[in-house]
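Progress against Task 2.4 (sequence-to-structure conversion) is shown through the following example record, which the project officer requested during the mid-term review.
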Amino acid sequence: MKNLDVDLYITQFRGFFDKNPNDLLSLIGDVLVDDFFKRVEEQCYKNLEKGDEVSVTRQQLIDIVVDLKSEETEKDIQSSITKVFEHTKFGDICLN
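Structure tokens generated for the chain above:
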């Protein structure tokens, strides 16, 4: 269910970073922007459910970025692992 306060906050939050793209880049690095804003919106709803302010705290922003970075690192590790093994008609061969 949409909330007007969350929508307004997210609009202002995005607006700030649209005007200051370098700040966004320094905050999230190579994380996908849409994923970042989606997580921020989810956190706003969690804050609202707890009865807290809608706005995200500095620590919550840090946690979101760390979580997104760890997901990307995990994907990179998985793709590296699949490159180590070569599948042949004789079976799998480890190229390590």
